[in-house]
Amino acid sequence: MRVAVARYRIEPRPSGFGFDAFARKQADWLGEAQKLGARLAVLPEYLSLELAAAFPPAIHADLQTSLEAIQALHEPWMALFSRLASELDMHIVAGSFLLANGRGGYRNRSYRFAPDGRHGWQDKLQLTCFEKKAGQGGAGVIEPGDALGVYEIDGVRTGTAVCYDCEFPLPVRAQREAGMQLLVVPSCTDTDAGATRVRVGCLARALENRCFVAQAVTAGEAPWSPALDANTGEAAVYAPMDAGLPDDGVLAMTRGEERWAVAELDFAALEASRERAQVANDRDWPGQLAPAIARAKFDP
């Protein structure tokens, strides 16, 4: 499977940017991924917040009013990515949409679209400090998800970990135990430290689980948005650091102004690497659960 992950540049100025312009931008970006041979294209977390640029400054300058405003564009969003997946004959993970839950809150929901019209989602499970405080007066309006899943893309079992979620080993391990071979990570970070945390999380999950990890990121500056004001990091595809695989775990990474990092994922080679493994973190995982070492004792 050839996978493309985006280093997606957020619009720096909202003037004149509406849903039609957003739709043309998605067609341009995803059309480029298709020309690069991608069967799966991954866009970044918070992608839907770029749509707030379609509204006046009084709305797009405030996160909560932005979230309220973009709900009217949820149905066109779904139709857009469903159409592009079909027309391009490509699977698309469309970053995430902050979706109203009907109780005054929002789920950070990562949608996936298949060429045959099917779609599904994974909600972000762990919230960052920013998300916990998001809302007027610091009252949290973003809520965590409460379910974890694995799905198939062309027979490859795939899971989604939305940004911060990739920094937690146990949910990803649960996905691996459900057969996951590819972890998709739509992300958005606004500091170098944040970008490093997510990158290290991706590398660690690839190592622990002997799986591929595909991370998309936001890029550029958008001072008009309280959530997308600054964006850092590189899009990358990672593998376990073992025999027959890259020593640094990096299969592909964007450089300079590149918009996509593209990698050919050989799942047969990944499975075969177990037989000549230098280490076997995935197989040795149960060892850390032994009763004698699951809890450390202080020895004065």
UniProtKB/TrEMBL annotation:
CDD domains per UniProt: nitrilase_Rim1_like
One Pfam family in the UniProt entry: CN_hydrolase
Domain CN hydrolase: 1-267
Keyword line: Hydrolase
InterPro entries cross-referenced by the UniProt entry: C-N_Hydrolase, C-N_Hydrolase_sf
Keyword Secreted on entry: no
Claim: DNA damage is one of the keywords in the record: no
GO molecular function, one term: hydrolase activity
Gene3D superfamilies: Carbon-nitrogen hydrolase
PANTHER family assigned to the protein according to its UniProt record, in alphabetical order: HYDROLASE YHCX (PTHR23088:SF50), NITRILASE-RELATED (PTHR23088)
Protein name (database record): Carbon-nitrogen hydrolase family protein
